[in-house]
Design a protein that fits this description.
The chain is α/β, with parallel strands linked by helices. It contains 6 helices and 5 strands, in the order βαββαβαβααα.
Length: 178
């Protein structure tokens, strides 16, 4: 499938996944673009025309088009152009499933369902612990399980916050040479 839709609640990794895909495209020399609808919805829909030339296009927060009939039409037209241009991959992310989006343009809902759809679920505590351990190892840090459990028990359980805390610990350890 060339069109992919990802949905999930805040903090499950949708943006992280989109950015990783654009980074992989960059490494392979494939033209790519990541756009966040949060920064586009106050602009004219024609801004999408500038990114259609890319082979890999990642659009985050498409649920924000629900508030604008112009943007619903613009996204609809964009998806049609993407298919006509025979581009490689269109990956879109939303905080809601397609069926839950409050769209006034029924044809847009149909277009969003053209490809494969995935729902991301939040990690449980064991999975969060494993993710933190793997990220720490990737940073060249070694942690005892107790330290990771401390982070989980004493800080926010939001993965973005947990990863930021891990980054701060890494920076502090480098500054203190420990």
């Amino acid at each position: 499938q060339r069109i992919c839709m990802i949905d999930g609640s805040s903090g499950v990794g949708k943006t992280h996944l989109l950015l990783a895909i654009t980074e992989m495209a960059q490494r392979k020399g494939i033209s790519h673009q990541y756009v966040n609808m949060a920064s586009l919805v106050n602009l004219p829909t024609e801004v999408l025309q500038g990114i259609i030339v890319n082979q890999v296009i990642c659009i985050d927060n498409i649920d924000l088009v629900s508030a604008s009939s112009d943007w619903q039409r613009g996204l609809f037209d964009f998806i049609n152009q993407f298919v006509e241009n025979d581009n490689t991959l269109l990956l879109m992310a939303s905080s809601q499933a397609i069926s839950q989006l409050e769209l006034t343009l029924a044809d847009l809902r149909t277009r969003l369902q053209w490809g494969v759809n995935f729902s991301l679920k939040p990690l449980n505590d064991e999975q969060k612990q494993q993710a933190l351990i793997q990220h720490a190892q990737a940073l060249g840090m070694s942690f005892q399980d107790d330290a990771i459990k401390f982070l989980l028990n004493r800080t926010s359980r939001d993965m973005e916050v947990l990863m930021s805390n891990l980054q701060a610990l890494d920076k502090a350890s480098l500054q203190n040479k420990r």
